[in-house]
């Protein structure tokens, strides 16, 4: 290779290097300007004209006061997603939320929750509860970070969610310092656990209003009421028929009133006869009488789906069938309360 050619390569390389170093300041100024324009255009297009972007190289700084917590999150997420942005310094100002609220619905193993939390740490803690205590893919949350939370808000939310999943149905409304809780469970222990966890927050200024149903307690309470009514008085029928005697109508009305208060349980209406007559006929008669009582209660307003009439004939006597007094006791209707 000739010396002239070598000198030509060297001169070309030097010219390229010189061009590179001369261009660096130009592009250092051009990159932030171009990037800011891209970011600001994206923000303005989405309606976030309140947010203003500036840049140092590929690092963006956002300033402005968000009109809503959702706008705050959207502007931040949008900026981070712009091509070329390396980092985002968040100088946005949160909007003060009034009233501060959070609602949660837990039903059919599905949690729907929306509202506000005071900071990103609180949101992270709640997310971990979702992951550890609720079925995967069964949490729909619309939570945003915003200022204005009462003291103890994050701990209250966390405590409520940690004790909700074992319960069948929960509706929770938090508004300011007021807690409105409705819950239904087959086990009173689960509801008691939730209430015990929430009670300490009353000492921190929160008020608690609750509407709670535990079907195991409801079953026992309803059974006791039916038993008390039927302890000394029985529903009577015309002999050999399923026609209710008029004297039993006041008793039926009282039984119906109890039934209306026991809409969370199912009730078996069990019909029995004495041992006189053919067993097959007695079985049919006891079924007809149970059906008659179920129809009467349904017409009185009870949900017929909760009533299960069953005839047992002369089986399971509670008294001696050899005496008239004993046979009168065995001709009876019983109400057996069960969980749905």
From TrEMBL:
CDD domains to which the protein is assigned, alphabetical: OmpA_C-like
Main location: membrane
One Pfam family named in its UniProt record: OmpA
Calcium as UniProt keyword: no
SUPFAM superfamilies: OmpA-like
UniProt-annotated location(s): Cell outer membrane
PROSITE patterns found in the cross-reference section: OMPA_2 (PS51123)
Keyword entries, A-Z: Membrane, Transmembrane, Transmembrane helix
Keyword Membrane attached: yes
PANTHER family named in the record: EXPORTED PROTEIN, STATOR ELEMENT OF FLAGELLAR MOTOR COMPLEX
Official protein name in the record: OmpA-like domain-containing protein
Organismal lineage: Bacteria, Pseudomonadati, Pseudomonadota, Gammaproteobacteria, Thiotrichales
